[in-house]
Design brief:
Layout (H helix, E strand, L loop, with lengths): L1 H43 L1 E2 L8 E2 L3 H7 L2 H32 L6 H9 L6 H11 L6 H8 L16 H26 L3 H9 L4 H9 L4 H16 L3 H7 L10 H11 L3 H35 L1
Antiparallel strand pairs: 1-2
InterPro entries: ABC_transporter_permease (IPR051393), MetI-like (IPR000515), MetI-like_sf (IPR035906)
Keywords: Cell membrane, Membrane, Transmembrane, Transmembrane helix, Transport
Subcellular location: Cell membrane
């Protein structure tokens, strides 16, 4: 009996210790994650200009109004377009660069720095660089086209609603490919050399070695890159706002820029909060099942 009481006392002490150590992260999670979400949802049920002492309760009206605005649907479609682009563009180019550099090119260290360097530049600086490059009269891109006799192809890159999103995606490709490159390159270098050598001994071509051996073993790296790309597509704000402010005529607007403009440009805090709730729901519906499926594939591959 004394032994049982001693064991129970030890378990209680261990439980108290665990509770003490868990209290800090749980408190931080509640304060910085749970509370802002609950507060934002509560604000979305009100009409408030940010200055009035008491917000006016309007229920779900902010959500209903947004569902009747074409501007809101256009922003959602832009986010989806960015999702597709970021999943395919920087990911594919980063994988290609990593595969080429993994073959032992001369000056490998220099190329590694050059490929990753753009990703270290802040978004506002990237926006400033590419706004200069896209300047319609004296920008670098227009100057290059004119110098090779293709001046007729020069466009108002950031002022034409039909091409502004493609121009933004070009700058985003230059900026974010370095991250995908670094993750894939590290993944390729972590593949056991014995697997590669065994495939070469069997007579596999370089393409077969990559596609049949290296690429399947890159699933952990792929999950990281694609997961970050999906998150970036949903929270996209800085480079769009810094380059176009969501224009021209809302052509490049995404949900985050619309939320910012609604809150601090129109002072409709409740409606801006409703946009953020929609963004959270859309991001959850898109990202979580995707990451779950990719993680399941990795577990299945490791089990084999």
């Amino acid at each position: 009996m004394p032994n049982f009481q001693l064991m129970r006392r030890k378990f209680q002490t261990a439980g108290m210790t665990h509770a003490i150590f868990l209290s800090l992260p749980i408190t931080l999670f509640a304060v910085f994650y749970v509370y802002p979400i609950v507060s934002t949802f509560n604000l979305s049920l009100h009409s408030w200009d940010g200055f009035s002492p008491t917000p006016k309760y309007v229920g779900l009206r902010n959500y209903v109004v947004l569902l009747h605005q074409s501007r809101f649907y256009h922003a959602v479609l832009n986010n989806i377009s960015w999702l597709v682009f970021l999943l395919l563009g920087p990911t594919s180019l980063g994988l290609l660069l990593a595969a080429l550099l993994d073959r032992g090119m001369k000056g490998e260290s220099v190329f590694r720095v050059l490929f990753f360097l753009p990703f270290t530049i802040p978004a506002v600086a990237v926006a400033a660089i590419w706004r200069w490059m896209y300047e319609p009269t004296s920008g670098l891109l227009t100057t290059i086209l004119q110098s090779v006799g293709l001046g007729g192809l020069a466009q108002n890159w950031l002022g034409d609603p039909s091409i502004v999103n493609f121009a933004l995606m070009g700058s985003m490709l230059w900026w974010t490919t370095g991250f995908a490159f670094l993750v894939f390159f590290a993944g390729l270098r972590n593949i056991p050399v014995e697997y590669i050598e065994a495939a070469r001994i069997e007579g596999a071509t370089p393409w077969q070695v990559f596609w049949k051996v290296s690429f399947p073993l890159l699933w952990p790296s792929t999950i990281v890159v694609l997961g970050m790309a999906a998150v970036d597509a949903m929270r996209l704000f800085d480079i769009v706002w810094a380059m176009t402010n969501g224009g021209p005529a809302y052509a490049s607007e995404v949900l985050a820029t619309q939320m910012y403009d609604t809150a601090f440009g129109r002072f409709e805090m409740g409606r801006a909060s409703a946009i953020s709730v929609y963004l959270l729901v859309i991001a959850g519906l898109i990202i979580m099942p995707y990451i779950h499926q990719l993680a399941k594939r990795v577990q299945d591959a490791e089990a084999e």
